[in-house]
Amino acid sequence: MASLCGPGLAVAETPPHPQTEVARALSFPPTLPGVRDPKAPLQFEADELGGEAGVNTVAKGRVRVRQGDLTVRADELEHTQADNTARARGNVRVVRDGSIFVGPSVTLKLDTLEGSFESPRYWLARTQAGGTAERIEFKGENRLSATGTTYTSCTPENTASGDMGQPAWALRTRQIDLDFEANEGRAEGAVIEFQGVPILAAPTLTFPLNDQRKSGWLPPSITFDSKSGLEVSTPYYWNIAPDRDATLAPTVASRRGVGLDAEFRYLAPSDAGELRVFGLPDDRLANRHRGQFNYQHQGSLTAGDSLSPTQYTVQWQRVSDDDYWKDFGQTIDSDTPRLLDSHVRVQRLLNERNWGLGDSQTELYAQVQSWQTLKDLDLDAPADSQIGEPYRREPQMGVRSRGLSDAGLEWDMRLEFNRFVNPDRSLTQGNRLHGVAQVARQFDFNGVYVRPKLMWQGTTYDLDRQGLSTAPRTVSRGLPTVSVDAGMTLDRPVQYFGRNLVQTLEPRILYVRTPYRDQSDLPLFDSAPRDFNQYAIYSENDFTGVDRISDANQVTIGVNSRLLDEASGAELMRFGVVQKMLLADQRINPNGSEPITSRFSDLMLLGSSTVIPSWYLDGTLQYSTEEARAQQGTIGVRYTPGQWRTVSTVYRYTRDGASQVELGWQWPIGGRQPTARQMIAQQPLSNASGLRAPASCGGAWYSVGRVAYSTRESRFINTLMGLEYDAGCWIGRVVAERVAIGQSDATVRIMFQLELVGLSRLSLGANPLRTLKDNIPGYSLLREEGEPLPASPSPLHDPDD
CATH number of the domain at 5-35+43-212, please? Predict the structure, then answer.
C-alpha cells in the first residue's frame, strides 16, 4: 500500500511497517519557510536605477533584488517604500531556499510575503520536482493558494515542432491551499495522469504537509492470482491517535467473493502490538467461511530504566482451515506457513554479583505454547508431505543462571519443568523436570587454548498412563559429560594475487566422553537428530532437545586455513576439513536403532572465496570415506559487478533426497542506466520560457528472477520472473511468481507496481518488492525506500542564482 500524494497532497499517510509496505506521503516543502527578518536591507542591481527618494525605486534591465535568502530577478521592477511592495514584470524569477518560481509577473509585499504570481513555473529543491500553476497567491510566510496546478518530477522532451511535450506523469489539481503553520492542506479536483491517461482521482482531499500520518483512502492494490482470480483491494487508513492506527481494506476477488483485511497497531512506552484479521465470509470456491487471525504483542512490566526488567510476549496465530496455506499463503506472516506458533512468554532478567564468584546473570522464564498444524488434504500427496504436530507446552517454567568468576571459571546452570500435551492421544503425554549444570575453564598459552568442561544432565519424567500399558510412569536419567576443546592459530605473511596477505592455519581438536544409558523407555517430546554441518560436528550431543543424550567416546579433529587482507583484515578465502573419530561403538544412533561401529564419520569439507573481485564462491560437502561418495553438499556462486547487477546459482544435493539447482538474477537488459542525478541533466536556458529542457525520463530495463529446478523430479519447483523499468522519474515493475504447493499443484500470482518518484514513492498496485528481496540474493532496490532524487540543479536553474 502507498499514499496518494502530490504537491503537498496526500490522501493518507502511514509509517513504514515490517509486515506492510507503506510509503511515506509527500511533504510539500514550504517554498517560503523559516523565520526571516522583514527589516533586512534591500540590495538592488540593475542596468538603470531611478525613482523618487523615500517613495519608490524603479529598476530596469537585468534587475536583481536581494533581501536575506530571498532573490527576485526581472526585466523591470518597481519597489514602493510605503507598503514595501515589489512589482516585477518580464522574465521574473523568485528564489528562496533553492525553490524557484519563474513567470511573467509577480506582486510581493516583502515584509509580509503576501502577493500573487501569474502563470508561474516552479521547482522545489527538497523534492527535485515542480510544475506549473495558473496563479499562486502568497498569503504570508506560511500560507499560499494555487489554482490550476501541475506537479511532476519528470521533464518533458522537445517535440518535433520544438515545443515541450507532456511529462511521463503529472498530478493536476483545480485548487490547492497550504497552511504550513497548521501543517494542513486542502486540494480540490486532484487527478494523477500517466502517459496522458488519468489513473487516479479524488474530488476533495485534506492532507498533512510533512511526514505526519493522515487518515484517508490509499491507492488500490490489484493482483491476479490463479486461484482467486483478479483481486482488487482499496485500503482506508485511520490515524486514530499518535500511538494508534488502523487500516481497513475491503477486498473483492473475482472467483472467491468479498472479504475484509483489517490491521490495528498501537505503541506505548513499554508496550507495542499489532492485530491483523482477515475474513472472507463466503468463499465461493471452497463453499465455506475463510479467515486468519494474527495477534502479536511485546511489553515490559518494569520501568524501562530498571536493571531487572520483566518482559513478556504474546503471539496468537490461527487460520480457518487446512487449505489456507495453499490459497492464501502470501498473507501468512511466518517462516513455516504450515506450522503456526501461538505462545505467551514471560521472562525476568536479574544482573547480579554473587558470593565473590564473579559477574552472573539469572533469568526466570515461563511459557505456554501451542501450534496449529496445517495438513495437506490432497489425496495424491506423498506421505512424507504430511507434518506431525509438535507437542504443546502447558506450561514451561524454568530458571537459568550463568556467569564468569574472578578466577576465569565459566558456569551455567538450568532447571526447567515442562508439561507436554499433544492432540494425538496415541502419543505419550506427561511432565518432564530437567536440570543441567556445567563448568568450564579456558587456558591460553601463547596462541594455544585448552578448554576443559564438565557437565551433568539429570531428567525425570512423570508420564500419563496409556490404556493397558505396563510402561513405568516415572522414569529418571542422569548423565555426566566430560569434554576438552583445544586449538591454536598460526599465521604467516604471504603474497598472492599481487597483494600482501596473511595466511592462517587453525587446527582444532575436541574430545568428548559421555557414558551409555539405555533411553529406549524415554519419550521423544522435543529431541531430533542434528543436521550434519560444521557446527553440529563439534557438538557434544548428536541430538537437539533434552530427551536423548548420545553416548560418546570420540575425538573430532579439524583444521581451517584462511587468507586475510593484511591492511583491512577482510577474509578473502577459507578452507576447512573436519572429521569425527569414534574410540568406541556409539550405541545410541540418531539415524537408526543399530549402534554405530564405523570408527570414522563422514568427512566435512567447506570453503569460500572472494579473491576474484565481484565474485563470491561458497560450498560445503559431506563425503563418506567408507562408501567413497558424497552424501550431501551445496555449492554456490554469485557474481555482483555493481549495483543492480547480480547473478547467483546454487546447487544442492542430498543422496536419496532432494537435488535441485537455483538461479537468481537482477540484470540490465536494455536502455541506458543513468543515475538519478543524470536524469536532470542541464540544458541551455530557453529565452522564451525561462526553462531548461533536461533529459527525458527515459531509462533502463532490468530483468529479475529466481528459478528452482528439481533435477531428481525433472520439474520446476518455484519460479519468479519479472521486469523493472527505471525511467528516473518513475519506476515500473511486473513480476510473476509460481509457487509449488504440491506434487502437481502450484499457485501463480502476477503483481505490478507503478512508482512515481517525487510523490514519496507513491505505489499503485500490489507491491512486489518484498517478494524480490526475499527471493533474489543480492537484489538492490532501484531507489532506496524514502530516497528522493539527489540534490541537483533544477530545470529552472540559472548559474547566477
Answer: 2.60.450.10
